[in-house]
Amino acid sequence: MKQVCVIGLGQFGGHLARTLVKMGCEVLAIDMDERRVDAIRDEVHRAIIGDARDPQLLRTVITPTVAETAISLGENNIEPSILCTLHVSRIGIKSIRSTARNDDHAQILRAVGATEVIFPERQTAERTARRIANPSLRDMFPLDADYRIMEIDAPRRLFDKSLGKLDLRREFDLLVLALRDPGSAQFRFNPGADEMIRPGQVMMVLGRELDLARFSSI
Fold first, then answer.
1. Which of 5, 142, 193, 215 has the lowest tally of Cβ within 10 angstroms?
2. pTM for the whole structure
3. Cα 196 from Cα 194, distance rounded (Å)
4. Which of 94, 118, 142 is the last residue of a domain?
């Protein structure tokens, strides 16, 4: 079971911790607000009241078995998130994700050890904008560089044609990762070339954002 430490249990951090548990992770949750810790104590594996700026506390509770740390601090003051990121980096955690208020804050976080910087409101706004601009778009997830994974309602133009015949890699430089049938909650991954695209299906495709935009507009 993957062990993740979530530091800061505000709206973003609390929801993140609960979701990670549902996805099978072992979660250590830390916040200096006793009410936030009490509210989540029964939903995570371990919850601790403590100041994330305290390096001794962090060294005590973040053991080498912790694979990743998610830091959601700095709602009113950026100092706690910067110091916490620095201390966690010095402990030796390889994957440190931290939320940022603005670009300057993000630059400092990267300088002190954050491996990924998250802008929760900005990223939510961008995803919402994409869905407003393209109603068939279900979701989009960023990867390295400008690559994205997109979930989209199968375009009408593709109906009753096989993936092999469509050859989306040649036309759009896209890779079809999975298909979800109408009424199903689960994706079927790695579909074969003879798989037919049907009305109501949702496609999960991988590619560059520009190519995904071209594909979603057909």
1. 193
2. 0.69
3. 6
4. 118
